[in-house]
Write a structure and sequence with these properties.
globular, Arc Repressor Mutant, subunit A, 99 residues, alpha+beta
Length: 99
Amino acid sequence: MALNKKTIKVCGLIYTVLVTEYFKAGDDDRNLWGYCDHESQTIYIRESLSEQKKRQVLIHELTHAVLHEAGYPEQDEDMVNRFSIILHQVLQDNQGLMT
């Protein structure tokens, strides 16, 4: 992720993607790799991660955003993890699909 701030549309809403080292994830004090704030429509990605890990975390947090905007506010973290890992790999293996 070359830029530290990008936007992405999710169900017609614009989410801002911020790559930064420090962010507050609700009331969670853990040192998270990423976080999706549905209220502010912001996805945070930890800056110190490798580029590959940043892409994986972005897909994970984007999965949270998609599910939330599709009407699933309560999400099983294990399901999101499994789905996002597979989706990341599919996108990596088929980069020329939409070109």
